[in-house]
Amino acid sequence: MILSDRDIKKAIALGDISIDPFDEKYIQPASIDLHLDKHFLAYNFGENFVIDPKMPMDQMMKDIIMEEDKPFVLDPGEFALGMIYEKTGVSSKMVGRLEGKSSIGRMGLLIHITAGFLDPGNSLKMTLELHNTTKLPILLYYKMPIAQMAFEELSSPCENPYSAAVGSKYVGDMKPRASQMWRNFKK
Q1: Tens digits of per-residue pLDDT, 71-101?
Q2: How far apart are CA 46 and CA 106, in angstroms?
Q3: Which homologous superfamily is 5-43+57-173 in?
Q4: So where are the chain's domains?
Q5: Annotation says 159 is catalytic
Q6: Strands 127-132 and 109-110: what pairing?
Q7: Which of 68, 132, 135, 179 is the most buried (most CB within 10 A)?
């Protein structure tokens, strides 16, 4: 069951949801609005010709830090990893589901392709998989509202929360990281 605004407030008070920084004015009827951070990763197209999921991708991407008063330009068809400004976490009995705001979708911007799930026990700045589906550049601004997070309570607390101990790859991330898929082939 998705938590209502009043249950989100209760879960924050109990420590089952953490949002830092937190401002109650961003709580919606069944979610909380989240904002864009200034850290991005984008592919170096001139230096790479293929993405191989068996190989580390860190060197294929370049770090970009957006200036607070100057937008990040996402060109038509371009893909970049971005970050949510707020560090968001859930206890072992909760999950979060990240979705784009409808105003963002109406501009032709996808904020995630597959990774909109906040696992039980994780606390991090969620990674955004930004894709401009239009034929025009889209300007993205530091701390602009870009997403919303809905929360659900599990039927019971999980036995093994998201952690490095269970092989989780993106524990506590505070900056975007390239895909770690290659680690799945190192068994």
Answers
A1: 999 999 999 999 999 999 999 999 999 999 9
A2: 31
A3: Deoxyuridine triphosphatase (dUTPase) (2.70.40.10)
A4: 5-43+57-173
A5: no
A6: antiparallel
A7: 132
